[in-house]
TrEMBL record:
<keyword id="KW-0547">Nucleotide-binding</keyword>
<dbReference type="Pfam" id="PF00005">
    <property type="entry name" value="ABC_tran"/>
</dbReference>
<dbReference type="GO" id="GO:0005886">
    <property type="term" value="C:plasma membrane"/>
</dbReference>
<dbReference type="GO" id="GO:0015426">
    <property type="term" value="F:ATPase-coupled polar amino acid-transporter activity"/>
</dbReference>
<protein>
    <recommendedName>
        <fullName>ABC-type polar-amino-acid transporter</fullName>
        <ecNumber>7.4.2.1</ecNumber>
    </recommendedName>
</protein>
<keyword id="KW-0029">Amino-acid transport</keyword>
<dbReference type="GO" id="GO:0016887">
    <property type="term" value="F:ATP hydrolysis activity"/>
</dbReference>
<keyword id="KW-0813">Transport</keyword>
<feature type="domain" description="ABC transporter">
    <location>
        <begin position="16"/>
        <end position="258"/>
    </location>
</feature>
<dbReference type="InterPro" id="IPR030679">
    <property type="entry name" value="ABC_ATPase_HisP-typ"/>
</dbReference>
<dbReference type="InterPro" id="IPR003593">
    <property type="entry name" value="AAA+_ATPase"/>
</dbReference>
<dbReference type="InterPro" id="IPR050086">
    <property type="entry name" value="MetN_ABC_transporter-like"/>
</dbReference>
<dbReference type="InterPro" id="IPR027417">
    <property type="entry name" value="P-loop_NTPase"/>
</dbReference>
<dbReference type="InterPro" id="IPR003439">
    <property type="entry name" value="ABC_transporter-like_ATP-bd"/>
</dbReference>
<dbReference type="GO" id="GO:0005524">
    <property type="term" value="F:ATP binding"/>
</dbReference>
<dbReference type="InterPro" id="IPR017871">
    <property type="entry name" value="ABC_transporter-like_CS"/>
</dbReference>
<keyword id="KW-1003">Cell membrane</keyword>
Amino acid sequence: MTATEQLARATRQPLIRVENIHRTFGEIPVLRGVDLDVAEGEVAVVIGPSGSGKTTLIRMINALETIDSGRITVDGTVIQDATNGRHRMNAKAVRLARLELGMVFQRFNLFPHLTALENVMMPPVRVRKVPKDEARERALRLLTRMGLADRVDNRPHELSGGQQQRVAIARALAMEPKAMLFDEATSALDPELVGEVLKVMRDLAESGMTMIIVTHEMRFAAQVADRVIVMDQGRILEQGTPEVIFNRPSHARTEEFLRAVI
Ligand code: ADP
């Protein structure tokens, strides 16, 4: 990124803003004061030990999980607000946010009775009222970009896990989101299928898409991240460029975690 681009990014409001989020499940404090701003065009990769709150955090941004205190804003619209003791979640704002955020889950959640093409076409037709011909064109373009041009007429059960996940990514992109959230998108895949999904995620990152990625793939994180965020016990332990986090982390716990997973 050039200095001018860096300055432009720094002066714009963040696309996603998470302010002082807390959340307790039963007795367990799962998030304990998390702040996170993600700028347009930024690729933020969240890493950390299992149970540190990564998935919960990313689900909150899409309003799939509520917060006990704090505030979440997407593209200037407050999605959830619990800053003064009362939780407010505006249904219209949530709908808007979900349109602006494409989410990819560990499990692909495709419609089993629809072909790959129909899975990708459907949401824009139903939700955004995009004309069918246009949606079909867009879906074909996206599936081709995902390396699935010869698979458009297959149903999910006829596709490998890696192919299904690429259809799921195409489906999220078909809604033309402003940002994409990935929650351990490769964790459910057989090892030999992980690479093909990481490749399309890498291409997407290089295309300038704003992304928050929760992953255990450290080499991938080092390649695509503008910023690596290390979570531990419901907090952001530290964050920085991949170069800093992977080579010169500030915290012994980060070192410990990285030693265990790399
Ligand atoms: P990570 O993604 O870092 O592995 P999670 O956000 O999935 O962490 O989970 C953090 C903690 O919250 C874990 O201890 C998990 O068991 C707990 N947790 C997550 N979701 C729920 C839920 N819906 N109800 C109760 N506990 C939950």
